[in-house]
From TrEMBL:
Gene3D superfamilies for this protein: 3.30.300.30, 3.40.50.980, Luciferase, Domain 3, Nonribosomal peptide synthetase, condensation domain
Top-level taxon in the UniProt lineage: Bacteria
PROSITE patterns: AMP_BINDING (PS00455)
Protein name: Amino acid adenylation domain-containing protein
SUPFAM superfamilies: Acetyl-CoA synthetase-like (SSF56801), CoA-dependent acyltransferases (SSF52777)
Gene Ontology molecular-function annotations: phosphopantetheine binding
Domain AMP-dependent synthetase/ligase span(s) in chain numbering: 222-574
Amino acid sequence: MTSTHQSTYWQDTLAGAPIALEVVTDRPRPRTMTEPPRSRPVRLPDGMPADRYAFGLAAFQLLVSRWSGQRDVVVIGSVDSVRLPLRTRISSVAAFGDLVRQVRQTVAEAHARAGELRGMPAPTQLGFQLSGGPPAGEDLTLVLTPGRERIVYRPELFDDDTIDAMAAAFTRLWGQVLAEPDAPLYTVDCLAPGQRDELVHARNATAMEYPHAEQGMHQLVEDRVDRCPDAVAARCADESMTYRELDARANRLARHLISLGVVRETPVCVMLDRSLDLLVALLGVLKAGGCYVPLDPSYPAQRLSAMASQTGARILLTRSDLAGNAPAGAGSTVCLDVERDAIAARSAERPAVPTSPDQLAYVIFTSGSTGHPKGVMVPHRGVVHYLAWCGWAYQAEEGSGAPVHSPLSFDLTVTGLFLPLVYGKTVTLVPESEHPVVGLSTRLGEAPDFTFVKLTPAHLNALAQCLPDPLDVSARGSRWLVVGGEQLTAEHLALWREHAPETMIVNEYGPTETSVACVADCRPAGEVTTSPVPVGRPFWNTRIYLVDDELNLVAPGVPGELLIGGVGVTRGYWGRPALTAEKFIPNPFGPGRLYRTGDIVRYLPDSRLEFVARIDRQVKVRGYRVELGEIEARLAEFPGVRQTVVLLKNQQLACYLESDQKINRRDVQRFLRGRLPDYMIPERVTTLAEFPLTPNAKIDHTKLP
């Protein structure tokens, strides 16, 4: 931004200013723009400020700040026919009158130093002038000539409707700050009339009645037991179990748990591998009225103990071969193989335990930013709603069911375990003795009529490498590939796009705190050609809002934090009331509560959502604020790259690329220089054939070299 040829004043004034202002455009910027600029009128309300220039520039910079998501705004202002870069840092807690005084001082100082300016060392997308000749070619210029107020813009970038919306928003903003100049800036509404209703109501018109809304998860399975008792409910290796057998075994276990003191919402730890016993244990806990707490036997003992002790669980369900890893604080240990005869002696009748849809079904632990895992309390209602939506969207009545290859501690597994059972299909469990992805590939070859397969993007890469022949993907597949857990790119789906383009791809998004998932994008593999793949639109009965730091709605296309409301929002964190109050907030736009995801997303022009970055992945590089996710998104466009990770190591940006080919560092840097400012170009580039993964098949950043 600065130049050694500039005076000290201009170097200091523009040091660290943004290279570009991310005002949302309707189309990508072409290499050249040849069409003549257009203009749309701006109608200002009655009343005139004393200093029209400073007032108008302050209002314009505030509008641009809100419509770009940036607090540091540079506008090329014409002052007495001299074009000067005018920089304003906008504080949301300041009053508009303070902003006007700040702008007035900036204009006066810049005009006094105009003779020292060499060239235009600033972004030139935005212009502002009161009068004079035509704008000098900025993307967007506000002209406040009295009686001829207008926005002049480049038609290659903006549609008329977009500029009209911006003009209407400016009119509203002008009226507000003229009437209340001492109001804090965060209270100023910078949306156009109609945009608020669109964002609050029209895009959240998702109300839908769904089946079994007042039932518990286990009761949905019981309904299927009554309808198809002799169908195969589950199989694992050489073992299988009918719905009748599953129900009877779960009923006996439930009665055994009740005899041990399990009542409504009693937490019961379940530490089992993928096996028929796992399904029996989960249903047994739910039938007894308890909530299950999944513990992965592969986790370190310290982490397992932290999870168990947080919930105060009184019982641990496991097997004798796994009991050696039983955590302290998990209560009495029930080894299903050791106590098999005692459990089998119980009645196979269903216990008469009432279940409320708002009763807890499970408590699942996720990583905490403080280093301590936090237990998300998930009621039956949210999961039943999720399963109902999935059953409709994924056509769960068709096909043979689903394979399960992921651990129970990952809520992605809930879909594969329960959705087939709710629809009378078969759960096919990949034994722990097999590599999960190799086992998945084998099952897909044995039963290509699976209804769906649930997996992460990393699983897709590994699965593609397991196929002996790329052409096998059409035979070793399923009707639906449901992908979640991390950002999905078109490169992940290259094999399916080429050899099985009719396979339906679901990019499923949702934090554990919203009952597995709540937003999805569904398209055939052949249509997934660009990266990143959008996360889509909300499920039934789900409300979403994109907001800035002050919980103001952001304009369409502007990145904002995603807030989620609706049926799927969970109760909060077990034993963490302060954290629950921080993350689950009253809905400022309507009834109910909202979950603050910490995810930055934006609306695409077709109203689908696109994931941008995590709030907590923002770092400082050479004094600049950098979203690591933004660099990763650009790297995902590099040919041959499947996945990307960018980290800050020793105050240097380091990027990791998963690819089958060795990628030259200079090629990557050259590629990024046309897309990002210099300070966002990684200095280290490492290519890996395969990223290291956590037990939940997410990228393990701690193991990257």
